[in-house]
Known about the structure:
- The chain is an all-alpha fold.
- The protein is built from eight helices and no strands.
- It has one domain (12-199).
- Helix 2 packs across helix 6 (158-176) and helix 3 (59-92) crosses helix 7.
Amino acid sequence: MATTKKTKAKRTAERKSTRARTARGSEAAPDSMNAVELLEQDHRAVEAYFDGYEELNDDKAKAELSEKICLALKVHTQIEEEIFYPQARKATKDDDLLDEAEVEHAGAKDLIAQIESMTVGDDLYDAKVKVLGEQVKHHIKEEEDELFPEAKAAKMDLEELGKTMAARKAEVTSELSGKQPSARSADRTKVSVDRAAAGDKPSSATKSPARDKG
């Protein structure tokens, strides 16, 4: 039993360390990361959230962390579907892998909607959070083992794509958390997202159009 307690304590410490590193990385400069690094940072954060949820007993703490989980996943899936997946589909030509990823997203969204309509303590609430965590971790493994290596091999412009995704992530987070971004910022990011989905370099969307001289 002593070994079990030590192992559990070690894992708890490791999870706390991971969350701390994730927080520091997020505060540093997300727009300096490439697209894959940005998505992997999201993966580590949400994995830490799910691990943390399993350790909680207080309903209020569970509700707060569940809200963070749902928000993080909604933001993450949205920037993947709007920006990363279209570019990855075009570059890798792997429709089967991208189709599966989108179906997995749909399943996660359904569970998120169910969880958000419930209250901590309701029948199956904890079970649904647990199943969501299992599904998300499976999805993460497939992305990191298959999709991301294919994206790198296809020589996608991950650096510029990362900048577009970081800007869109900040905007979507503000929107979903109830803090509306400025109209100018929204218009600029929309143009960037539209061009990225169409296959143009993300950087072309962030530059101001040159004024005609004369």
